[in-house]
Every structure is written in structure tokens, then in C-alpha cells.
# Entry
Amino acid sequence: MTLRAIAFTLTLATLSLAIAKPALAEGGCPPGSYPIGGQGVQGCAPIPGATNSGTNKHPTPAGRWVKTWGALASAPNGASGASVGGRSKRDAVAEAVRLCGAVGCKVDFTYYNQCAAVYVPKAGRGGTSFGSSVTVEKAEEIASNRCVTDGGVGCYKVYSACTEPEFIP
# Structure
């Protein structure tokens, strides 16, 4: 082998090693990110809207879900109070009793992250019937059915509301 052939082979080998390096995105960052930083400080940040995996098309928002509570209270004289959106069961109960505003108010029903309904009969046996579910329609159906099952006649709705979890970013 001549000196010229050896030099050509070494040059070709050096070029193949340079080409065989793994491909990186701009600035040596992995796919889906771009270089950040200034002189002497270098890092990579995710490209907005890009994901690292093909299965997650939308980024997951950072934050947490917080339960919200509702409560219903009544007194022997017929006064009543209702609260929704309490950050704790204790807060919802205190608000319902405060809104009831009569001597002897007590909590009849509590619920969280859902809807509630209250039905009473026009006649017959039974008293106040409560229902809760993920939709107001389902909560009303449950309370109405309980009113009838308990012996109520002509049951009608006196209250319905929903309390939903809140997302805190």
C-alpha cells in the first residue's frame, strides 16, 4: 500500500467517525427542546407545544384539584340554610347553619364535588328526602324516588345545587 493510499484510508475513516455521531437537535439539545442560556451558561428548554412522547398530545397543566363542599341545615321552626363551594366540610356546615339563622339549626346533609337535591311531600308519610349525584338531574331523581318510597304523596323539589372541584394552578 502506498503512502497516498494510507492517507486516503485514514481520511475516509476520520470522516466516517464524524458522520456516525448521533444526531441531536439544535445546540446539542434533545428532540422537542431548544438551547437556552448565554455565554458560558447553556441548557435546554422544551419547545412550547412539543412533547417528548407521541402518546401525550397535550401537556398536563401543573396544579391540583381542590374539593368543594355543600351543606344543608334546618331548624324545628322550618328555617333552613344551604351552602355550596366550601373549601372544607367544616366551612360548608358553618355557612349553612349561619344562613339558617334560627335557634336549633342543625346540619341535615353534606356533600362534595357533586350535586344535591331536596324533595318534600305535599301529603302522606315521610319527611324531607335528600339525594346527591354527579348531575343535578340524577340527584333530583334520587331525592324524588326516596320521597315516594318513604310514603310521600305529591313530592316536590325545594332545593337543588351543585358544588364542583376547583383547579388551582
About this structure: Helices lie at 3-19, 89-100, 136-149. The longest helix spans residues 3-19.
